[in-house]
Amino acid sequence: MNCKICKSKGKRTKAVIYIRHHRLALCEEHFISWFEKQTQRTIKTFRMFSKKDKVLVAVSGGKDSLSLWLALHRLGYETYGFHVSLGIEEWEFSRKSLEICQKFAERIGRPLMVFNLREEFGYSINEIAKGAGRKDVCSVCGTFKRYIMNKVCREKGFKVVATGHNLDDESALLLSNTIRWEIGYLGRQHPVLPESNGFARRVKPFCFFTEKETVSYAIVNGIEYMETGCPNAKEATSKLFKKALAMLEHEMPGTKLRFYKEFLKKGRPLFERELKEQLVLKECEVCGMPTTAPVCSVCRTLMKLKERC
């Protein structure tokens, strides 16, 4: 199969990817160009940030986050990488993830900030979850990551955090929340979570790209990334929703994109109106971060852990 754009110019260049829902075959050069233009379009459409902003890019060492960092860097944004080292020893996951992020930061010549969970809190994420009597490590991990990112943004003056969530992630989350009728989550699911109450703005520039497209961008750009997923995500229910959507996508190309885009256009506004009045946040009595309770969730978890130990 030949590149559609090259063909229109009278050239015959082999395509490196075929995007079924767009009926678009592209060579390496035109795929990279298309991918970065689409990224810029999403940023502009949702007014995520501008060239004046310092953008903190959350990088895990995976294909999506590193691809995002590269794309934003090439588009001329002032980017800073941020990695949370979780202390996951299985498969040497955390050590390898950190090394990959450090190598990539050197490659593009941008600074990388690292938050070491064990050094800062005294425990790995698995020890925190186990010690606090929590079986859902992923949920605990998400809570701590959000807390840490907001804390760093507050201390370093960042107003926006960019994450590498792709269309597969967003459509699976949407399906999960719809099946459970999580009104609050459905009302808040959006490519941009606005800055408010001391929390940094969170944006998802890759929300319309499939996993196939982001991994292809990583490969053609020679990005070294963690090919194995997090050991703690073995039992993640999101995999079931992704599998279900993949089956639909195979039979009806474009299903995931239509599902998500139509939700943003027609569904989310309805759920957004159902949300209760914005919660009043106050400072945590222990760490000073915004919270609805006297003591925030992270501090309560750490206090419970210390009591048990």
TrEMBL record:
PANTHER family for the chain: ATPASES OF THE PP SUPERFAMILY-RELATED (PTHR11807), TRNA-5-METHYLURIDINE(54) 2-SULFURTRANSFERASE (PTHR11807:SF27)
Which residues make up the binding site for Zn(2+) 2?
284, 287, 296, 299
Q: What name is this protein filed under?
A: Uncharacterized protein (TIGR00269 family)
Q: Name one GO biological process term.
A: tRNA wobble position uridine thiolation
Task: Specify the tRNA(Ile)-lysidine/2-thiocytidine synthase N-terminal domain's residue ranges.
Answer: 54-227
Residues the entry annotates as binding ATP = 58-60, 64, 84, 164, 169
Residues reported in the UniProt entry to bind Zn(2+) 1: 3, 6, 27, 30
> What taxonomic ancestry is recorded?
Bacteria, Pseudomonadati, Aquificota, Aquificia, Desulfurobacteriales
Q: Which GO terms describe its molecular function?
A: ATP binding; metal ion binding; transferase activity; tRNA binding
**InterPro entries assigned:** Rossmann-like_a/b/a_fold (IPR014729), TilS/TtcA_N (IPR011063), tRNA_thiolation_TtcA_Ctu1 (IPR035107), TtuA-like_LIM_N (IPR054306)
Task: Write the record's keywords in alphabetical order, separated by commas.
Answer: ATP-binding, Metal-binding, Nucleotide-binding, Transferase, Zinc
Which segments constitute the 2-thiouridine synthetase TtuA-like N-terminal LIM domain? 3-32
Q: Name one GO cellular component term.
A: cytosolic tRNA wobble base thiouridylase complex
